[in-house]
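go over this chain:
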Amino acid sequence: MEFFDVIKSRQSVRRYQDRPVEEEKLRTILETAASAPSAGNLQSYEIYVARRAVDRNALAQAASGQEFMASAPIALVFCANPGHAQPRYGQRLTDLYALQDATIACTYAMVAATALGLSSVWIGAFREEQVQSAIHVQEEVRPVAILAIGYAGEMPEFTPRREFNDLIHEL
């Protein structure tokens, strides 16, 4: 798929087929996420792969019962890990850069999934402590986003975007 076609065709999908994601596709998604730019190339983030239904169900419960998540065969949890950036940057920037690194990696994964014919949805509404417990991490590793990935079980209508002139501002 051409890059701009990928961008224009990506949608948030909340219903998935009961069909596994091929290992090579998952590997490509993870390699793409790992190639995302990061502050100072410190890559101050971690990616946790949830394949088992019990793990995806725990994540769905942590996400205020967004059950559709559990029906996706893969859930990726993107976490900020400021410990990778602290020696080089001040505390505010360390926390900010780690957050940005995780979100950029998640965006790369989301676009890669679309390019591979898969669908996804970005989940940001969750109880952080419950996600930490579900993926077995300590407090310093902070969940930022969950990306449910699978083959679409539905194709929702495209949602309207803000008007270009309302969104873009010339200085």
User: Anything to note?
Assistant: The mean pLDDT is 92. The chain has one domain: 11-153.
